[in-house]
Amino acid sequence: MQIGVLGTGNVGQALGTRLAKLGHHVRMGSRTKDNANASKWARKAGKRASHGTFADAAEFGEVLFNCTAGSTSLAALQAVPAAAFEGKILVDVANPLDFSHGLPPTLSVCNTDSLGEQIQRALPNARVVKALNTMNNSVMVHPEQLSDQHDVFVCGDDADAKATVRGILNEFGWPDEQIHDLGGIASARAQEMLLPLWLQVLNELGHPNFNLRVVT
Amino acid sequence: MQIGVLGTGNVGQALGTRLAKLGHHVRMGSRTKDNANASKWARKAGKRASHGTFADAAEFGEVLFNCTAGSTSLAALQAVPAAAFEGKILVDVANPLDFSHGLPPTLSVCNTDSLGEQIQRALPNARVVKALNTMNNSVMVHPEQLSDQHDVFVCGDDADAKATVRGILNEFGWPDEQIHDLGGIASARAQEMLLPLWLQVLNELGHPNFNLRVVT
Fold first, then answer.
1. ipTM
2. CB distance B210–A212 less than 8 Å?
């Protein structure tokens, strides 16, 4: 599959590297064509990896991952010509963290709206799936590293898009029974509002190598 | 121990019944002295159970549980003479759910404040511990009913109060390793902001007999 990764930080690099290793062709996008992180990543990630602008990555991918910082996601995505998103699956991994009031960060949007919904409204021709935002990037792509079963949440308005994302999650190592479909994109509120708890548990444990599981 | 349970709904009844069975003396409080739920509960719950007004229950208990609906908690607690809370441990189990905009409910306070913090500010002489608000009442008092280990979160500004609450949780069946201390009362934000996810998982599973676990 051709996949565009928008964002050059730890999340984008972890997803891009794993996707390329799995055999996908991955183009990492950033604001500028010559981003140092992206070009270094592309050299390391091998022959299926390339990099360019956000627009280059969006045009290249059948499936796109939004790995930009939540505070800049809307601006980054809206800087790309809308036609590049036509019919595309956009996996929104970002969290709308607001560090302007100090630590721990608050959310810049929550409760009655979410970043996932804002992105879907801004890009009505894309099929937005919120996923993987509730854990550290290392856990996203190698779920087998934890000591026991744990879960990932997905939501979005397009069932086919969610099925494709489920397939990619399966490739990462998430079996179907650990993937919780929470319904339409409005459930991005629930997924993003987990972040304050995640940050407190990070503080309690002193490391980010954990995740939540729904026990029945 | 003498325990006051404020609120006569499912949560108050589940906690009151379990606490009385464990040997504690429990007084359930409500707005009126002759609340039908409370008197029926007290008859069923046995000789260690009694009922009265919110003030009666608050004066009676060394440890108090706030089991009122989140939307009415502040009014209910502030109707009690402040002296009744002097030095008392107040376990806040409520969630600030706002049903006025339809389903699923939103939160009436979140992100930069929480019901737990509002209660602590309103009752500065009480020692507020947020706990148990992240699960169904049946799971609170019988954690052994689920298929595997799962966790409870606590926070509060007073370490002794948290230690006492930990002891009660142990009695309910929560071993120490399943009790996550998230720090000061400001972490009530994190615990309460779990509710939207809880409600979506309830919707996905079709029943409330589940809980979250932190997997490392």
1. 0.97
2. no
- Residue B5, phi then psi, degrees to nearest 5: -110, 115
pLDDT digits (tens, 9 = 90+) for A84-110: 999 999 999 999 999 998 999 999 999
- Give pLDDT tens digits along chain A (216 positions): 999 999 999 999 999 999 999 999 999 999 999 999 999 999 999 999 999 999 999 999 999 999 999 999 999 999 999 999 999 999 999 999 999 989 999 999 999 999 999 999 999 999 999 999 999 999 999 999 999 999 999 999 999 999 999 999 999 999 999 999 999 999 999 999 999 999 999 999 999 999 999 999
Among candidates B62, B55, B59, which has minimal Cα distance to B30? B55
Quick check: B153 contacting A, CB < 8 Å?
A: yes
pLDDT, tens only, A27-62? 999 999 999 999 999 999 999 999 999 999 999 999
Q: Chain A closest CA to B142's CA: distance in Å?
A: 13
Decide: A4 and A58 in contact? Cβ < 8 Å: yes
Beta bridge partners of residue A91, listed in sequence order? A65, A129
Strand order in the sheet with B89-92: B49-53, B25-30, B2-6, B63-66, B89-92, B127-131, B152-156, B179-181
Say if residue A104 is preceded by a cis peptide, omega within 30 of 0: yes
Distances in Å between the alpha carbon of A212 and those of A135, B156, B180? 8, 22, 13
Q: Which residues of A touch B200 (CB under 8 A)?
A: 153, 155, 182-183, 187, 190
How many Cα atoms within 13 Å fall on the side-chain side of residue B104?
Answer: 23
User: Which pLDDT value is given to residue A170?
Assistant: 98
Long-range CB contact pairs, A71-79, < 8 A, 24+: A71/A96, A71/A97, A71/A98, A71/A99, A71/A108, A73/A115, A73/A119, A74/A115, A74/A118, A74/A119, A74/A122, A76/A6, A76/A7, A76/A31, A77/A6, A77/A119, A77/A122, A77/A123, A78/A122, A78/A123, A79/A31, A79/A54, A79/A55
Q: B179 at the A interface (CB within 8 A)? A: no
